[in-house]
Amino acid sequence: MRIAAAQIVTGEDPRQNLELVDEWAGRASEAGAELVVFPEAVQRAFGHTLTSVAEPVDGPWGARLRDIARHHGTAIVAGMFTPAEPGEQGRARVTNTLLAVDGEGVLATYDKIHLYDAFGFQESKTVAPGEEPARFTLDGELLGLATCYDIRFPSLFTAHARAGALATILPASWGAGPGKVDQWRLLARARALDSTQYVIACGQGLPAAAGVEAVEGAPTGVGRSMIVSPTGEVLAEAGEAPELLVADLDADVVAAAREKLPVLANAREIPQG
């Protein structure tokens, strides 16, 4: 399976962001990709009001995403925001959702389970957490979904691997800061290695590298998207600016890694206390 990771930088306008998706999906299709992965928060970049753009996955934004997939003959995964119940004291909230589509319809949706309440940012103030993992099948291969901060929680990745996933797709909008790029690179490789599957870590590019004005303090991306093998090898890595990564995923490579390094089979539950 040929897969592409489109590291783009989105802004405030959902329509302009869809134009970016259309452009980069076309590039991925020309490169022979069957699936193109876009970052988290493609519908609208973080730092802007999210409730005003939130809509169901079968709403106009999602419908346009399906049109783009149909036009280019690829499946697409991209981050959007869907409506959620109000939080404490009636605070308006959205759900941070990944939408996976092809030309025929919705393949899967995933609501981000682990919210980014770290490094001074509190995603949970405006975002409701998801509860269930999500996977979909494309060309006979099972693919898992995860979002950004989820990368710090190995159990989600091993759950996908135990279910038979060839890869986990990880859109992100990684927050900048001291050591954060090193952590991103380390975590992407670690999650691939400790679950013996491919990891497609596609983040928002660095806004300054794309000439995009970003909201100060918001997690608007650092670039450095990666495609990592089941043995932790970096197959492709982007810089800070918008870039397209392409790699071929091979089920035989996953099987060989799991035979040589059977961490999933060897794992034991550690009693607490």
Structural commentary:
- It is globular and about 50 Å long.
- It has seven helices and 15 strands.
- With 273 residues, it is an alpha/beta fold.
- 27% of the residues lie in helices and 27% in strands.
- Strand 9 and strand 10 (141-145) form a beta hairpin.
Topology:
Layout: E1 2-7, H1 14-30, E2 35-37, H2 60-72, E3 75-83, E4 94-102, E5 105-111, E6 117-118, E7 121-122, E8 127-128, E9 135-138, E10 141-145, H3 154-162, E11 167-172, H4 180-195, E12 198-203, H5 207-210, E13 226-228, E14 234-237, E15 243-248, H6 251-260, H7 263-266
Parallel strand pairs: 1-2, 2-3, 4-8, 10-11, 11-12
Antiparallel strand pairs: 1-15, 3-4, 4-5, 6-7, 9-10, 12-13, 13-14
In short:
The protein is of the alpha/beta class and 273 residues long.
Low-pLDDT segments, ≥5 res: none
Q: What letter string, H or E per element, gives the SSE order? A: EHEHEEEEEEEEHEHEHEEEHH
Mean pLDDT: 96
The radius of gyration is 17 Å
Helix content: 25-40%
In terms of DSSP E residues, the strand content is 25-35%
What shape does the CA trace take? Answer: globular
Class inferred from helices and paired strands: alpha/beta
Distance between the termini: 44 Å
DSSP summary, beta strand count:
15
Largest sheet: 7 strands, mixed
User: Number of DSSP helices?
Assistant: 7
